Amino acid sequence: MPTALIALAVFITVIVVWNVVVKRNMGEAMILGFLSTLPFAGLDAPAVAVESMVDATESEVLYAAAGFVFMTYFVERVGVIDKLVSILSGALGRVRGGPAFVDVVASGLMGALAGGSNTGNAAASGSITGPWMVRSGWKQSRAATVIAGNAGLGAAVPPSASMIIMIGFAGTMVTTSQVYVALLVAGLYQVLWRVALTLWFVRRDGVHREADHDSNTLRAALATGWPSMLIILGALIPIFLTVGPLSDALVASGNYGESLDEISLIVWIPVLIIAISAIVAWRELPRTLRGWAEFMAGSVPHFFTIGVLLYFAISASEVLDRLGLAEDVDSIVSGLDIPVWLLVTLVGALVVLVAGPLSSTATLSAVGQVSLVTLVGAGVNPLLAVIALLIFASTEGASPPASGSIFVACGITGAKPESTFVPLIIYYVLPITALGVLVALGIIPIPIT
Predict the structure, then answer these.
(1) Per mean pLDDT, which range of 51-60, 221-230, 289-298, 355-364 is the poorest?
(2) How many CA atoms lie within 13 A of 173 on its CB side?
(3) Mind giving me the DSSP string for 118-132?
(4) What is the pTM for the complete model shown?
(5) First CA to last CA across the chain, in angstroms?
(6) What is the CB neighbour count within 10 angstroms for residue 213?
(7) Could you tell me the residue range of the domain that residue 213 belongs to?
(8) Residue 447: inside a domain, yes or no?
């Protein structure tokens, strides 16, 4: 009897019901999901619970997630993201369809520099580009479709909480550097798709250049905000030190051991981005102890849901592992006589369907482990399996009817949510799902070393 798979099914059901039906927050849902797996351990349940929770406290990804949460809060609070968007507006404002291109790039930057919340991404970038698009001649429904479709870049571009969860599930099968670089390349594919899609929308809808665009010119935006661009170095420096020619040269010098892989990207990227943001935006920092106390207190609510979610997601995965999830999945996969491409497609469809009502983080917390074990058991490269699952889950922002990004985008543009459902599926959900399948099968190149 596949006890672990039954426990997984109960775990997913509890999460979906508590979050979608009862409409409570995902932190609570994950606690209940964790508790729902324990009865399957029988009389060993208390010991399994304690061991799993202790193991979760030792997970690097839990503490790295806290770093990314604070990084997101910090760069937004000191106004670095706003300055970057102003530069984009100045650069692309007069381009035909300019605000939509600004939304693509801004969503990607926010994904790379301000965490992986797709709904938050839609709200942050869309609040600027949404009214601008409508004013410059875009149809309300198309503007909402573009904003919600681009919101997925919050999870598609590293770093993100989803990425951290999958690194934890993969364990020793992959390294942090491998996942970061590979997901960055996969994220760039998604950006390119959205740029091409925007070009097509501009031509199809007859969007004209905005003649009276009077926002900050590029020169003015750069004059006041160019230092904000330096925070990109916070991500680039650790990457270049751990992979590529610079890393190879440092190792070859004999002064840095045989490898620089011990430099943890998920630790150092948020640290460097926070440090650089503090330097370039020092005027926005508090000047008194009371000011700093209020500044830090403002970050506390941001930690609660994601911290509880990650902790109990990791704890639940430890329980499922002890129940023999890998063995249960292997016994089923080994008995299936279907081609790998079909199995990958079915797994992708499962993740995409779960990502409809749930966030990408919650989706991978629920089905990420079993999906990874299934793909690896079928012969898919572990790194490609991780990246494919992250791509599948990034459809969350564009998955009707329950995606928060859709309702945020429609609220900003005044569009009817139902008018975006079919376009989002056709232009974003299906192509991105296909991208994940092609990545898993090794057809679209992704660096795996």
Answers:
(1) 355-364
(2) 20
(3) HHHHHHHHHHHHHHH
(4) 0.78
(5) 39
(6) 18
(7) 3-440
(8) no
